[in-house]
Design brief:
By secondary structure, the protein is mainly alpha-helical. It contains four helices and no strands. The N terminus is likely disordered.
Length: 129
Amino acid sequence: MWSFLANLIGGPIVTGLIGAYKAKLAAGNTSEKIAADLAARELAVEQRERELNTQVVIAEEGRWWTALPRTLVCYAFALYVVKAVVVDCVLGLGSTAPLRGDLAVWAGWLMALWFGGRSLEKIARIIKR
């Protein structure tokens, strides 16, 4: 599975590296060659970052006992949302008590990170530049 994901992610990056190398060869002046070389290096660094991130995920989530807590919490909350929204609100077949206290705060953070985590990573990368 991980090799499939690496190939899926690596395909566009490898294509970009080839394109950057072709641009470097076709560049007429020195500044264009430098820009093409920098673009190729940036793509290579990005590919390496993705490889390292994949290794981190495998190390952290590579065993069932390390992946289980996150999975249980996410699926339990997903079931609660489905029950509260679909069954109660859409179908009108019951009523679910609202979350209160710390549990409501945790659920809010879970939703924010679940759906906004990747967006926050992209924003942080833009700010970092």
